[in-house]
Design a protein that fits this description.
The complex is a heterodimer. In chain A, 0% of the residues lie in helices and 49% in strands. By secondary structure, chain A is mostly beta strands. In chain A, the strands form two sheets. In chain A, strands 2, 4, 5, 6, 9, 10 and 11 form a seven-stranded mixed β-sheet that branches. In chain A, strands 1-3-8-7 form a four-stranded antiparallel β-sheet, with no helix packed on it. In chain B, the strands form two sheets. In chain B, strands 2, 4, 5, 9, 10 and 11 form a six-stranded mixed β-sheet that branches. A five-stranded antiparallel β-sheet of chain B has the order 1-3-8-7-6, with no helix packed on it. The chains are: A mainly beta, B mainly beta.
Chain lengths: 115, 111
């Protein structure tokens, strides 16, 4: 089964704790992305990576960190510096560099709640 | 900056057609996408259209693009209760390659 998996589906965190969200894909896609979704809003880009060992900040990177040590994995860490981390987090991937097929496909999401 | 706008809510009767509208500001957008999100789930790609096309049809879905007015619409024929979801319009910036999403339109289908 090819696709993007995110785990866990639900995550609870106490204030002041860092937490890491997992994203794995077996589509052999080069690029991976993290978005944040808040109720009644569109998706906002946190970080993206076009190639292994390289990543760029998106529009709302403050309080988040990522790594891209393997092509298939792009974990997101929500740090204690993120002021309002409760949200739905979506990971996506795409074939980078081929405009006709550079369509982003999304995982099922992780809902993070800070207690 | 780049912006994509959608109306927030649409209610239709089962069997009617639904038309979800979207406007965008980035004239360099190369591709425009429609995604569907069911409650608690990720986004499912429905269809996309390249900026040099006016229309694209895929079974019950018809996408119309008016590039002059920067207006995109998604028509769902014979709307079913299973079509109830949030629909996101997104533009792929020709400058940055990033996707810019609208706020999403909640489609409610009444039996």
């Amino acid at each position: 089964d090819g696709g993007i998996t995110q785990s866990p589906k639900y995550l609870f965190r106490k204030e002041g704790q860092n937490v890491t969200l997992s994203c794995e894909q077996n589509l052999n896609h080069d690029a991976m992305y993290w978005y944040r979704q808040d109720p009644g809003q569109g998706l906002r880009l946190i970080y993206y990576s076009q190639i292994v060992n390289d990543f760029q900040k998106g529009d709302i990177a403050e309080g988040y960190s990522v790594s891209r040590e393997k092509k298939e994995s792009f974990p997101l860490t929500v740090t204690s510096a993120q002021k309002n981390p409760t949200a739905f987090y979506l990971c996506a991937s795409s074939i980078f560099g081929v405009p006709s097929t550079d369509t982003q496909y999304f995982g099922p999401g992780t809902r993070l709640t800070v207690l | 900056g780049e912006d994509v706008e959608q109306s927030l809510f649409l209610s239709v009767r089962e069997g009617d057609s639904s038309v979800i509208n979207c406007t965008y500001t980035d004239s360099s957008s190369t591709y425009l996408y429609w995604y569907k999100q069911e409650p608690g789930a990720g986004l499912q790609l429905l269809t996309y259209i390249f900026s040099n096309m006016d229309m694209k049809q895929d079974q019950r879905l018809t996408v119309l693009l008016n590039k002059k007015d920067k207006h995109l619409s998604l028509r769902i024929a014979d709307t079913q209760t299973g079509d109830s979801a949030i629909y996101f319009c997104a533009g792929r910036s020709g400058n940055t390659g990033k996707l810019i999403f609208g706020q999403g339109t909640t489609l409610q289908v009444k039996p």
